[in-house]
Structures are given as C-alpha cells and as structure tokens.
Design brief:
It contains six helices and five strands, in the order βαβααβαβαβα. The chain is of the alpha/beta class.
C-alpha cells in the first residue's frame, strides 16, 4: 500500500510538494495497479492536536509495557480517552499497512508544517509499532519517501545547512519508529521561491536544476519496488 500524505497549506497549483507527490503517486500506481492507495490531505482534513486525555492514555500504555493497539481499548478509563483513541487508531492502522509512505513536506520557518507535526504526534503512540512478542519495530522495512521543498537553499555549501530542521527531524522521527536509515529517502527541491524573493534573483538556473533533480530521483524511487 502507498500512504500519500500532503501537508502544504498551498493549493496544488502553488505547492511544489503537492505537484511532486502527485507525480510520484501517479507513477507508483501505474507500476502497482493492484496495490492499495490512500491519500490523506492534512490541510483539507487536519488531524486534531493532542489533548490531555491522549497523554494520560499514552502514559498508562507505557506503564503496561507498551501494549499493542488491539489492547489499548482495555486501558481506556474515560470518554475523553475514548475520543482520543478513536481519532488515533485509524491513522496508526494506515501507517502500519503501508509499504511506502509518501510525505509532502514544505519547509515552514525552517521546520515541518504544524499540520504534519500534528499527524506525527498522534501516530507516535507508545508501543503502536512494536511487535508484541519481540518488541522489534513493525516499520523496519517500511519505505519513507519525503518530498521536501525549501524557498531558499540549505545545502552543505550554502552556509545555511544549520538552519535545516526538516531533514534532521524526519531522520530522528523515522529512526525512533524503527524505520531503517536506508529506507528513508529525503528528496529536496530548493530555491522554490526564486520567482518571488528579490534576494534570490540570479539563481533561476540553480532552482530549475534542483527541481529537475528532485523529479528525476522521485521517478526512480517510484519505479523501485
């Protein structure tokens, strides 16, 4: 299954990440016609931020030794906790079922959008992706393709690499869930605001090259199993 997550607040025509994730999804689905596909638009249908009942239920699950999702309902002690779990379980189930996770991640103020962070916070329920017998991650073989867009340039030779909190955050989060490092594929298109920001004038060729390279990499990843 391909789980396709978009988080840009921009409409498709204005969003680089939405255009690129759509291209990847079309190519992937063409190569996997029998496979399931799920698209979740976090801007159109936001995931609610965590409430206190979520954290209370999560701590109770931790004290029990990180119970699997099927056993969480037995730990629920209030209607508020039940509501939080009802909002959480479908997201966990989607992520658990995915062979490939496609994330559209524009850079907002040097980091990931709040809409995506809300989804990450909710799916990262204690023990949700741990094997109930061995404790090993159920996501170790999951492939994550993260489509990044940055208005400026943040590569190692730009002097701004230290301001990139997108990529390190996604590496830390997926690693914490047990996704193997080689299964995470960050693909960045940089200088995407070259047409509107005066201080980026003269970098049009670099912006076009970055976008072309991102498209090429995504095409190769979509064709891979």
């Amino acid at each position: 299954m391909l789980l396709h997550i978009d988080s840009s607040a921009d409409a498709t025509a204005d969003s680089v990440t939405r255009r690129l994730t759509a291209e990847f999804a079309r190519a992937w689905r063409a190569g996997h016609p029998a496979a399931r596909y799920r698209h979740r638009d976090l801007a159109a249908t936001p995931v609610p931020p965590l409430a206190g009942a979520y954290t209370t239920l999560g701590r109770r699950a931790e004290r029990e030794g990180f119970v699997p999702p099927a056993k969480v309902p037995a730990l629920i002690e209030s209607p508020a906790e039940a509501r939080e779990w009802e909002q959480t379980l479908p997201l966990i189930s989607e992520l658990s079922a995915a062979d490939t996770v496609l994330l559209g991640v524009p850079m907002y103020n040097f980091a990931v959008p709040a809409a995506l962070k809300a989804w990450i916070d909710r799916v990262t329920f204690p023990g949700a992706f741990a094997h109930p017998d061995t404790g090993e991650s159920l996501l170790s073989g999951t492939r994550v393709v993260a489509v990044l867009a940055r208005g400026g340039a943040y590569g190692p030779d730009t002097g701004r690499a230290a301001l990139d909190f997108q990529t390190p955050y996604l590496k830390a989060w997926t690693g914490r869930l047990g996704v193997r490092p080689e299964r995470l594929h960050p693909v960045a298109a940089e200088l995407t605001r070259v047409d509107v920001l005066p201080h980026l004038a003269g970098q049009e060729e670099a912006a076009a090259a970055s976008l072309a390279e991102a498209r090429a990499r995504l095409s190769r990843l979509a064709a891979a199993s």
